[in-house]
Design a protein that fits this description.
Blueprint (H helix, E strand, L loop, with lengths): L2 H5 L18 H17 L4 H10 L17 H12 L3 H17 L4 H8 L9 E12 L2 E11 L7 E8 L7 E8 L4 E3 L13 E11 L3 E3 H5 L18 H30 L13 H35 L2 H29 L9 H12 L7 H12 L10 H12 L12 H13 L8 H17 L8 H12 L16 H14 L4
Parallel strand pairs: 1-3
Antiparallel strand pairs: 1-2, 2-6, 3-4, 4-7, 5-6
Helix pairs in contact: 2-3, 4-5, 4-8, 5-8, 8-9, 8-10, 8-11, 9-10, 10-11, 10-12, 13-14, 13-15, 15-16
């Protein structure tokens, strides 16, 4: 089924009902479908599939016009990613990442834009936005070290957009995003995953890579839409808030995957017989209910995405607010969840014959499950923020911010800084979210400072000679601090229990759980 059949028009409708610029046509889709099995087997996008995306012109959809790109609407990206996912989820995912990064580079310096896209507006720019790298300031720029996971399309990368942080003892990390050329990057072919196997989302590594100042942007300016460069374009698309936009990026892929999977399920159920009952599966009332609910979930996801595109357009045109961003992030994330649920619902009813490789339903289910693991699809986080705004409250910082503060405390306490690979991804993402909603570059509040000093004092004094001082030792010290005044889990609060009785209680617990 094409996007025209889904929406009932030629092409793909935007939030205002207009027809989008659809470049993934049936001919391009057929090439993507032909390479899908190869992509799965070799864990990366085939050269033929990437060539089809390049030839379609889809890669330059959001490349700035001043740099030779087409600078189309944000909704055009959604329509093309969704259409690509009807044919192959991995190709759609890589397309989503590459177009998304070209959109973000529109908020960086014009010198960088010309450097990356001047010779070829179809330049491949993979990357990883999580600020897990480390940056050290030097003359004329920065030295970057780190290992970045989930770098989709890494093997084909010509430039890489990567997140990093400057760690200063006792201070909140300063977050940066940098662009690094291929010659300064090593690719670790370690992508073995349950879904999106053909996306080649490998780790990439940089060691003392020099990044001149014009290839860097403060993450607060990038994520918060405060870059002065984002306003120097013909359209307002580069003023679209990044994190809500990312949720719609991922939702577009999930939507196409869900539609492809449901189409395969309907076709399968129409001809499949129940081997035990001897009757057609298509006559089962329960199956009818599952298909009806799944299709309504997917249609609801599409309507949510279109509504969210309208919110993002309002934000780009100047009506931005924390409340709008919280709503847009939640709606995009909830659309992803609706698509995942729909595929789970029909996969459960498909029976054993749908679990084998070669089943489009099975692959769509795996790919959508993998897509739903993206950080922007964390419903607990975005739901809390959106719910708070509905009660007239501030959306608040990311709930994992305490972990970020704890990392800062450890750094300030004089312990060895952890390597980029070992950093708590939730914690650094929390700091990125803070950067997005802050009024300026991230800085510690006085309340934060007090909490940091409290943790520094407790963790710094608890280390003993000979005790392991690495990550596990730090974790033990932190747990000791957190549990210092907490009642034991087996003891009612406020009730004293003698040591002998405590041993008996713990013994009964071990017996109940088979750990004697």
């Amino acid at each position: 089924m094409t996007a025209a059949e889904v929406t009932g028009s030629n092409g793909s409708n935007g939030p205002d009902g207009s027809v989008r610029d659809l470049r993934i046509d049936e001919r391009t889709g057929a090439v993507l479908a032909d390479h899908a099995a190869w992509n799965e087997e070799h864990r990366r996008l085939a050269e033929g599939a990437l060539g089809a995306l390049r030839d379609s012109g889809a890669l330059r959809l959001l490349v700035p016009e001043r740099a030779g790109g087409d600078e189309r609407e944000f909704a055009d990206m959604v329509a093309n990613v969704r259409e690509a996912a009807l044919y192959d989820g991995a190709a759609a995912w890589v397309l989503m990442v590459l177009v998304g990064h070209s959109w973000m580079l529109g908020s960086m310096t014009e010198e960088l834009q010309d450097e990356v896209y001047g010779a070829d507006p179809d330049t491949i720019v993979p990357g990883s936005l999580a600020p897990v790298g480390s940056a050290t300031e030097c003359d004329g720029g920065w030295l970057i070290d780190g290992r970045w996971p989930f770098t989709s399309g890494a093997i084909w990368g010509e430039w890489f957009l990567l997140g990093s942080q400057v760690l200063t003892p006792g201070e909140r990390p300063r977050l940066l995003h940098v662009v690094i050329p291929r010659e300064d990057i090593a690719v670790d072919d370690n992508w073995y995953a349950i879904g999106l196997r053909g996306s080649g989302s490998c780790d990439v590594i940089a060691e003392q890579a020099f990044v001149p100042t014009h290839r860097m942007i403060d993450s607060g300016d990038l994520l918060g839409g405060r870059s002065p460069w984002s306003s120097r374009h013909r359209t307002s698309v580069y003023r679209t808030p990044i994190l809500p936009g990312l949720a719609v990026h991922v939702a577009a892929t999930a939507l196409g995957l869900a539609r492809a999977g449901l189409d395969d399920a309907a076709e399968r159920f129409g001809v499949q017989d129940d081997r035990y009952m001897g009757s057609s599966k298509s006559k089962r009332p329960g199956l009818h209910m599952r298909l009806a609910e799944a299709n309504t979930e997917v249609r609801s996801a599409e309507l949510l995405i279109n509504d969210t595109l309208g919110l993002l357009r309002q934000a780009a045109d100047g009506a931005d607010s924390k409340e709008l961003r919280a709503q847009a992030k939640y709606q995009g994330s909830y659309a992803i969840e609706l698509c995942r649920r729909a595929l789970d619902r029909v996969t459960t009813a498909a029976g054993g014959r749908a679990v084998f490789d070669g089943s489009r339903l099975q692959q769509a289910f795996r790919d959508a499950t993998m897509a739903s693991q993206h950080q922007v699809a964390d419903l607990d986080t975005v739901g809390e923020a959106y719910g708070r705004t509905r009660l007239g409250m501030d959306p608040g910082p990311h709930p994992c911010r305490q972990n970020a503060l704890r990392n800062v405390a450890i750094s300030g306490g004089g312990t060895q800084q952890r390597g980029a690979r070992e950093l708590d991804e939730d914690a650094v993402y929390a700091t990125a979210v803070d950067a997005e909603i802050a009024d300026g570059p991230p800085r510690r509040s006085s309340t934060d400072a007090e909490r940091v000093r409290s943790i520094v004092r407790s963790t710094g004094d608890r280390r003993q000679p000979g005790r392991r001082s690495g990550r596990r030792g730090q974790a033990r010290s932190i747990r000791a601090h957190r549990s210092r005044d907490r009642p034991r889990s087996h003891e009612p609060s406020g009730q004293r229990v003698e040591p002998s009785e405590r041993r008996h209680r713990h013994g009964r617990c071990r017996q109940q759980h088979g750990r004697v």
